[in-house]
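Lecture notes, unit on protein representations.

Consider one protein chain, 143 amino acids long.
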Amino acid sequence: MNLSKIKTLIDFVGRSNISELTVTEKDVTVRIFRTSPGQEAVAEPSKEPESTTKPVSQAPSSAEKTSYAVKAPVFGVLHKAPAPGEPPFVAIGDAVEEGQTLFIIEAMKVFNTIAAPRSGRITHLTHIDNGEVETGDLLAEIG
C-alpha cells in the first residue's frame, strides 16, 4: 500500500464520523483511528491480519488532577522535533493550543502527528527522543 493511498484514507477518517477504519491490501493491514473527537486521525500499518491495539483515552488520571496525559497511540520511533537539528515542537512550560503538534511517531515509514488534545501548559515531557515508544506510553502532560 503506498503512502498516497494511506494519506487519502486518513483524510477520509478525519472528515467522516467514523472512529476507526481497517484496510488490508496484499499482506499489509492499515488501521486508521481517531483517539478522541476532534483529534487528527492516525494510521497504524501492520503486517498482521488483525491488530490488537486499542485507541488510548486521553483523560485525567484522577478526579482531582486537572492535567491531561498525552499517550502514544501507536508503537514506533518518537521524534520531538520536525527534523534532525531543529528545535523540539514543545518544551516543559510551553503554552499549547488544542490541535498543536507535540510529537511525531514514525511507524513503518508512516509519520503520525501527535496533537495536543486540549489547550494548556506542558507540565511533563518524556525523555525519549528518536527512540522507541510503546502504545500507551506517557509522552506528555498538559495542565
